[in-house]
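hi!! sorry for the late reply, been swamped w classes. u asked for the two structures so here they r. pasted raw, havent cleaned anything up. first the sequence of the first protein and right below it the C-alpha cells
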Amino acid sequence: MAEARTAPLEDLRPLSPHLQIYRWTWTMAMSVAHRMTGVALYAGTLLILWWLVALSLGPGAYEVVRGVMTSVFGKLVLIGYTWAVFHHMLGGIRHFVWDMGLGHGAPARHILAAGTLVGSLVLTALLWGAVFLAR
C-alpha cells in the first residue's frame, strides 16, 4: 500500500498576500489616505510654527511668511493642508463610529469611506469659498 506524502509544515502555510492580490476598495484607499494626511499634518504644523515664530520676530519676518502664504503656491499648500485636516478629522470620526460597533456592514463601510472623501472636499471648498468671498 502506498503511503500518503505529507508536506513539511512550511509548505502548508499560505504565502503572504501582497498588493497585486488585493482589489482596491474605498476603505482601503481611505486607510492609505488617512495615513498620508496624518503625515501631511506634521508638515502643516511646521507651517503654523513658522507663522507663529514670524509673528514673534516682528513685521519684517511676518511679511516674509505672509508673502509666501499669499502666493499662488502658498494658497495651494494652505488649501491642501485644510483638506488634510478635514479628511483626517472625518477619518477619525469614521473610526470612532466603528469603535462604537456601528457601520461594519459592507454598504455602511463604503458609505462611511466615500463620505470621508466627499465630506472633506466639501468642507474644504466651503471654508475656502467663504475665505475668498470675505476678501
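now the second protein. again sequence first, C-alpha cells right under
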Amino acid sequence: MSKEFKYDADGQLQLGQPAPNFNLPGVDGKNHKLEEFKGEALAVIFWCNHCPYVIKSEDKMISLYRDYANRDANFVLISANDVVSYPQDSFDNMKNRSNVKEYPFLYLYNEDQKVAKEFGAQVTPHVFLFDSDLILRYRGAIDNNINMERIKTSHYFRAALDRVLEEEGHNIQDPKTKAVGCSIKWK
C-alpha cells in the first residue's frame, strides 16, 4: 500500500480515490501506462492464468467487453502473482493464454507486485472501476454467480459500468462488493 492513497480497513483502495499510476509490460510486447486507458470508464481487473475463478470468468469477461466495445470503456487485466510459486502465471504463459482465448483487452504483468499493492487487490478476479476522471467508483466482484449456477445473477460490475458511462458513478447501488477468487500469490 502507498501512503499517498487512502485505504479501507481491509486494505483495499477507498472509493473516491484516484487510480494508481502504472507502467507495465503487456502481452503485446509493449509497455502500457495508466493514461493510455483513460476514457469514460476504465476497469482494471486483477487476473491470472491458473485460478479456477478466473477461468470460469474468462468468457463472461470477454462477452462483457464486447458488449461495451462501441462505448468509451477500457478494460485492462493485470497479473501480479509470484511466478516462482505459480509458474503457470509466468509472462510467457500469460501471452499464450491471451492468444488461446483471443483476449480482446490487454493483459499486463506486474512482476514486482507494486501496482497490485497500491490498488489493494486481494484476489483474482478483482475489479476496480474508474470514471472519466480516473476516480474509483466500484470495486469487487464481476457478479454473484462465479460458478454459473442456476441462480439469479446480480451483475454488479455491469451495473456499475452502466452508471459510470451515464456519468452517474457517484450513484452506484452496490459500489463495494466482495471479490471472490484465489488470493493473490505474494512473494
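hope this helps!! also noticed smth abt the second:
The longest strand covers residues 73-79.
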